Amino acid sequence: MALCSVGRPLLLNTRNSLGCFFKQKQTFCSKANESQEEEIRKKLQLFPGGSIDLQKQESGIAVMTVNNPARMNAFSGSMMTELEERVCELENWTEGKGLIVRGAAGTFCSGSDLNAVRAISNPQDGMKMCMFMQKTLTRLLRLACYRLPLISVALVEGKALGGGAELTTACDFRLMTSDAVIQFVHKHMGLVPGWGGAARLVRIVGSQNALKLLAGVKKVDPDFGNEIGLADGILKVGEGDTLVNTERWLSQFTKGSAPVIRAVKKVVLSGRELALDEALTTERHAFGTVWGGPANLEALALKTKHK
Ligand SMILES: CCCC(=O)SCCNC(=O)CCNC(=O)[C@H](O)C(C)(C)COP(=O)(O)OP(=O)(O)OC[C@H]1O[C@@H](n2cnc3c(N)ncnc32)[C@H](O)[C@@H]1OP(=O)(O)O
Description:
The protein is of the alpha/beta class.
């Protein structure tokens, strides 16, 4: 069995990918929760359409495409379960260094497929769907915290709405093309984010800005995104291939020693997610993994100067 194959005991996966330093409450570990997850997986598969495509390139950069252009790349139920499968593949991709998440046909993602939303509009099913997506997107964000030096970027072209906006926050970085818009439209749909997007947004832009974006349903264009720290860069439309430009941008973070990049991601994620004492312990351990390591010894031998 693959390390985290879909349908596996969920506790196993949580430990494998995060057990290094996240002392998480094991909320998905009971048999009851496992069968509940299996139940929601089956239910989600009743709403097919579109796909989540993953292209793992020799460069170590993977491109994951949300592909449902007839519905502006809205997430059907089957796409939610496919996303989980793709994340699982990435968790096991030993050559992985970087990940670009984008939408097909020049637009990012318009959130949940409203046809599926209508069909499962009772609170119980809504909660289960949201638990499923929260867990998958948390795994996406934490890719690399344990074994892989993998850094992710959302390439936002066109619109990222609702759950699509939430998906952007599950990446380490966001690049917006000059015509792109990120908008948490949930309030206009009588909702709040449920895929973990609010919790992540607060950590990215702070609670004041998050409140403005969620309560004011503010459209975030690239300049505003830059100002509040939601966008990490702007790609001008018409100036070269956006995917190639994104890959070039990402490579500044992915090049270099894999153990060092892995340690960097570990200290940053633990700093963001853990209490200070625990984060300091993690940082100490991460330091121990690189101190006197090959990259460190090489830099010392070269008498590296930082001019
Ligand atoms: C916890 C998660 C919460 C959520 O994500 S709730 C969902 C939030 N998203 C939305 O409400 C998006 C609603 N859609 C829109 O605002 C507009 O369609 C949008 C994305 C601005 C695009 O506008 P336009 O460029 O004018 O294109 P259009 O409206 O003709 O759309 C093209 C086709 O796509 C469809 N579509 C767009 N977003 C969808 C969605 N989320 N679920 C299901 N179908 C969706 C739309 O119905 C239209 O289909 P058709 O051509 O009429 O058959």
